[in-house]
Amino acid sequence: MSELPAPSLPVEPKPAISAQPKKSAAPASAPAPKKPSSAKKDHASSSTQAKEEGIRLVIWDLDDTFWEGTLSEGEISPIQRNVDIVKTLNGRGIVNAICSRNTFEDVKARLEQLGIWDDFVFPRISWGPKGPLVKDIIEKIQLRPETVMFVDDNVTNLNEAKHFVPELNVAEPDVLETLLDNPRFKGKPDPEHSRLKRYQVLESKHKDMAATDGDNEAFLRKSDIRVSFHSDIEAEFPRIHDLVNRTNQLNFTKNRWPEDIEEARLRFREEVEADFDTDVGYVKVADAYGNYGICGFYLSRKDEFLHFLFSCRTMNMGVEQFVWQKLGKRRVPIQGKVGSKLEDPIVDWIKVVEDVDASTETSSASAKRLKVCIRGACDMMMTSMRTKVDTLEELNYAYEGWEIIASPRFVALTRDLKDDRNREIIAHLPGMPDGRFKTDILEETSDVYVLSFSQESFHGLYQSKTTGMIVPMGHFGLPYHLPGGPKDKFDYTSVSYDDLVNKYGVEHVSQEQWDFFRKEFVFLGGFNKNLFLKDLRYIFNRMMAAQKKVIIIGLNQAVGRDHKLLEFFAEINSIVRPLAEKYKFDYIDVNDIVRSEDDLAKDGMFGGAHFDRPAYKAISDKILSLLPASAA
């Protein structure tokens, strides 16, 4: 027999583990009775092990451990101290399971007599080996072995359990004498036994899954799993703080906050305000078996998550995969071991509802989601609508240094591209990725279109000498706004190829492409009111003919320090708003929401184009209020 590893508990050491053989009245086919072991405790490591994390599950042997005597041989004597331990642990949020060599019906009847049967979860009671049974409990209950303690009076059983689950904590019954005083069993107050109830639900789910012959996906499709996304982080901060600092199995990023909750609040606010392109929210989960509350939290900057984590209570439901897919499959820098893969499976059995706390009737109505096309500058990604409706986001992005924007000009250009000559001209230009002119405004698959026009300040306009086609062009490496303001644009045709490459550092442009551009196009300048109005009418007429709902987001023209930009935004508003009213489109006046610099992004610029998160939340809420009742 190999030596028994030391129990991972700060208990008083004794010279050696002493185990006596336990008599057995098992059937003839049962395994041989337990045998004593001469294994020694390694006490040298107990002081460091005492620093390990808390225990969340205790697995009990019964005969000569939980009670005195052997049930299969006759009457047993209850140990009131152990009954009290189980009830006290449940009140601390530490659950209890059973692993015992006995007949199931006999054990259940005796524990029901003691009034404690319902205080246990996942009882594994049979005449088989205990190692596989302990492993099965831990796998089904979805806890890490480091947070589980197995108590048995027979060292052979402890060794066997450690063989199947090496990280498991094990101990003999003497540990029970001081167990409730051990800091690893402190837990957290749970007077309503909510954690015990959650694991009872999980146990029920496993029984139902067994009825589907172990087909987990078939079971999940019958489970009516629902999630809802929320952004009021501060209101739920204690629970989210606990998630960030306590979850491990499904904590993909493991960026912890300070234990002090007020320090953690400050850290959270710093993380949110560190980058304008921050998306943050929490996830609630429910299914046919119950409501699991807040089970997930995420915070991303641009396309990478700083926090992406979920409670183990949603293990194997597909929630983490579904949320990752729903949020656009942003990069997750995985730290340490995690209990699942985000890429697999592709989850299509989960519904998004307004709030899982609402009634089933309300949730079903909320599940009838609209498809909303959001078209505009990058700040539109700050709206939280993507968790309320199905969104198609046509926002600006970078391609080989060129700024790909969603201005009306690129929609209207599709008319010019019916001319073969124009298609040939476009094919010779840099900064034109595949699908550059693709837009759902033309495909008309969305139910609602949310449009913003701040990008009109971004690009200079260039006209083909051959056909008259007008194309906006913008590159991050070339001069942006000139001293004259948003309309004062730099003439790209004045730049030689040598300067383009060596002075401005522009890459991925051949000399042939640049020479063609400079020869074929003439610079028209910046914003052109007549052209903008013409392009708007083209889009609005299409939307009107398709009977689509359109919501226009006005621009901030009053708050900020970039006065030339604010003046330009005021001009855009003066064009767009009257036209929107003429077409009977909804118009959201941002100036009703952004009233002071406190409402602007905390980026140190206070220019006026970017807002603080509460302002975007208010814009989102306003948009949602304008949607049909089934999606609002």
Quick synopsis:
This protein is α/β, with parallel strands linked by helices and 632 residues long. It contains 19 helices and 25 strands.
Describe this structure in words.
With 632 residues, the chain is of the alpha/beta class. Helices cover 31% and strands 19% of the residues. It has a six-stranded mixed β-sheet, with helices on both faces. Helix 3 links the parallel strand 4 and strand 5. Helix 4 packs across helix 5, helix 12 crosses helix 17 and helix 17 packs parallel to helix 18. The protein is elongated. The relative contact order is 0.07.
What distance lies between the first and last C-alpha atoms, to the nearest angstrom?
66 Å
Strand order of the largest sheet: 9-12-11-10-8-13
Report the uncertain regions: 1-51, 360-367
Strand fraction: 15-25%
Reported for the largest beta sheet, the result is:
6 strands, mixed
Shape: elongated
Helix content: 25-40%
**Helix run count:** 19
Given helix and strand content, the structural type is alpha/beta
> What is the number of E strands?
25
